[in-house]
C-alpha cells in the first residue's frame, strides 16, 4: 500500500536476512510533528552492528524513496541514549525536532527534509 507503507526492505548478507527497513506513513504518532509523515524504521541483528550495513541500507532505501515519492520529508524516532542510532540519524541527514519522554526513556524525533 504505497500511501500507507511506501517501502519494506529485507537486508541480506551472505544469503541470510540480517536486517529490515520500513518506510511507513505515520497516520498516528505520539508527536504532532510526525503525523502524516513517512517514518523510517530499521532493525538489524546484533551480529552485524558496527559494520556500516545500517547506514548503507538506510541510505539506499531513502534514495529509493526520494525517487518514488519526491518532495516528502521523513521522520525517525529513537531513544536518545542509543548512541549508534543517534549517529546513524545524523549520518542520514536527520535533524532534531524534539525530545520527549515515552517508554520510560528520553526519545529523540528527527526530520529529514525533502530531497531537492
From TrEMBL:
InterPro entries: Acyl_CoA_acyltransferase, GNAT_dom, N-acetyltransferase. The lineage of its organism: Bacteria, Bacillati, Actinomycetota, Actinomycetes, Streptosporangiales. This is GNAT family N-acetyltransferase. Keywords: Acyltransferase, Transferase. Its EC number is 2.3.-.-. It is an enzyme of class 2 (transferase). SUPFAM superfamilies: Acyl-CoA N-acyltransferases (Nat). GO terms for molecular function: acyltransferase activity. Pfam families: Acetyltransf_3. The keyword Transmembrane helix does not apply. PANTHER family: GNAT FAMILY, PUTATIVE (AFU_ORTHOLOGUE AFUA_3G00765)-RELATED-RELATED, N-ACETYLTRANSFERASE DOMAIN-CONTAINING PROTEIN.
